[in-house]
Amino acid sequence: MRHAVLDGLGRFGGEDRSFVQAAASRGRRAAALGLVGTILMLGGAATQASPGPEQPESASPVETGPTVRPVAAWTAFCARSPSECTVDTAEPARIHMTTALWRTLGSVNRRVNARIKPITDQAHWGVVDRWDYPDDGFGDCEDYQLLKRRMLVERGLPRRALRMTVVIDDIGEGHAVLMVRTDRGDYILDNKTSVVLSWRNTGYTYIKREGQDGTAWVSLNGGDSPVATANR
User: Fold this and answer.
1) Where in 41-159 does DSSP place strands (E)?
2) Tens digits of per-residue pLDDT, 65-111?
3) Taking a C-beta distance cutoff of 8 angstroms, is the pair 133, 150 a contact?
4) Which helix (H) or strand (E) holds 213?
5) Which of 60, 49, 73 is nearest to 140 (CA)?
6) How far apart are the C-alpha atoms of 120 and 141, rounded to whole Å?
7) How do residues 9-39 score in pLDDT, each as one tens digit?
8) Which among 95, 100, 151, 205 could bridge 168 via Cys, Cβ 3.0 to 4.6 Å?
9) In sequence order, what DSSP letters do the residues of 161-186 get, joined into one string?
């Protein structure tokens, strides 16, 4: 096709030849743009068809041990907000993992992490450790997780399956995360990352978490308890 067009140009005069050359050039550009548009459209369709993992890989649950006392700041939080600390045993202890649940966990985790500005309790409240909602836009680790739990409960998830958890983090400090207990394993919402991870993939040492049958907490993997969760 290209050879036939160029060969035909020899039969025209200079002005006509320029016109045909320009027309041919425009035709080539239009064809090229059409090809690029098709490629981009197909690429976009392929991207939309592959949004990423719809659900996480299955992960084993954390091994629990005997009951232990909660962090003192948690006890003080419960005195201020008792409804947040009661355990309704009629609720399921684990949530059925679905694509919708997985997307909700990721969305809430990212949203809170982006919204709240980190600050230590000492700078925020003038005390070493205080658990509270970051309603003023500032908070440390446990405050992030309390807000995430409240948002998830507002979306219909059972509080009993959303357990505040104390760990030793990657820099050796006490740290609070939110453990979501599901029929595919235990997953962690954390202010240090916007990726929801299985508890094994966080690299943390798990110490204790809220119990699911009463106000007492339970030990995890036989860990010793830190005095406070002072990590931002």
Assistant:
1) 64-68, 117-118, 138-139
2) 999 999 999 999 999 999 999 999 999 999 999 999 999 999 999 99
3) yes
4) none
5) 73
6) 9
7) 333 334 433 433 443 344 444 444 444 344 3
8) 205
9) GEEEEEEE-TTS-EEEEEEEEETTEE
Residue 191 CA: distances (Å) to CA of 10, 22, 142 = 72, 60, 9
CB-side exposure of 196: number of CA atoms within 13 Å? 28
Residue with tokens 């036939």: 4
Single-letter amino acid, residue 115: R
Which residues are CB-contacts of 209 (< 8 A; sequence separation ≥ 6)? 62, 163, 164, 165, 166, 179, 217, 218, 220
Return the residue matching tokens 């916007």: 194
Give me the half-sphere count of Cα atoms (radius 13 Å) on the Cβ side of residue 77: 19
Q: From the DSSP assignment, how many helices (H) and strands (E) are in the chain?
A: 6, 9
Tokens standing for 129? 């450790």
